[in-house]
Design brief:
about 260 residues, alpha/beta, 4-stranded antiparallel beta sheet, about 30% helix, about 30% strand
């Protein structure tokens, strides 16, 4: 099987300083893989390496059947879309124009988006249920709405693999649910492969097909969330006692976790 994104024996870090080593995993179409880990554990460094912004210190990253260094930045952008954390401020571009910026990898150098590109942008807004925001300046949107606009921009790239860096960071409870629902739908409905970092182990239960934990220079997993997110593992990684419980909900049983303080 050819995976959309694959890490093989990867070591990541800066210069001669290795932050994490022996990292291997693969992303499949239609699946969400959640990357957990404490601050300073190497999640951001790993993402930057997967995106080709940092060279691996060992091992390799592959997109499909090709090694990442063999691809141009334009080719990488056509296969792999990155969704950063939404932050306030910036320029007051209309949401439609921000989404259309995702077409850059599909355009000739210095070319402006054409009618077809704008149609793709409109379709991406529709897929995420935010077409009503198309003419709104992104500076006037809520955090959750801005995050969905950034995800729509990634969809406009027409890449089959999405990498999301803490997509619910700084969002309120309702907006977290909004974004997580769409992340799950992109995999289940649209068949995209999704790698998502998060500080909330609970999110692995909510949207993850598998989870992995980066801690103390090593990667644990990938494994089913129920097998990886345990009280023992959370205590080891985060240094806190936690409880894992199963609740009966209208959508069936689901697991939750919370720290004991």
């Amino acid at each position: 099987m050819t995976f959309l994104l694959e890490a093989r024996g990867l070591s990541v870090g800066y210069g001669q300083r290795i932050i994490a080593a022996d990292i291997s995993f693969a992303l499949e179409p239609g699946k969400v893989l959640c990357l957990l880990g404490p601050n300073g554990g190497g999640k951001t460094t790993l993402l930057r390496t997967l995106l080709g912004l940092l060279p691996p210190l060992a091992g390799e990253v592959r997109l499909g059947d090709q090694a990442l260094p063999a691809l141009s930045r334009r080719d990488v952008a056509r296969r792999l879309a990155y969704v950063p954390q939404a932050t306030p401020g910036g320029f007051a571009y209309a949401a439609r124009d921000v989404v259309a910026m995702g077409r850059a990898a599909r355009l000739p150098l210095l070319a402006a988006p054409g009618a077809q590109d704008m149609r793709v942008a409109e379709e991406a807004l529709e897929r995420l249920g935010i077409a009503r925001l198309a003419d709104r300046p992104v500076t006037e949107l809520s955090g959750g709405e801005r995050q969905l606009v950034l995800i729509a921009r990634a969809l406009a790239q027409e890449a089959q693999c999405l990498v999301l860096d803490e997509p619910t960071a700084s969002l309120d409870f309702g907006n977290q649910a909004l974004v997580l629902r769409e992340v799950r739908a992109l995999a289940a409905r649209d068949g995209l492969a999704v790698l998502m970092t998060t500080h909330h182990p609970d999110h692995a239960f909510l949207v993850g097909d598998a989870a992995m934990l980066l801690h103390a220079g090593a990667l644990v997993g990938p494994a089913p969330p129920e097998a990886l997110v345990t009280a023992e593992m959370l205590a080891s990684a985060y240094g806190v006692e936690a409880v894992i419980a199963t609740l009966d909900t209208r959508n069936g049983p689901r697991r939750v976790c919370a720290p004991l303080i």
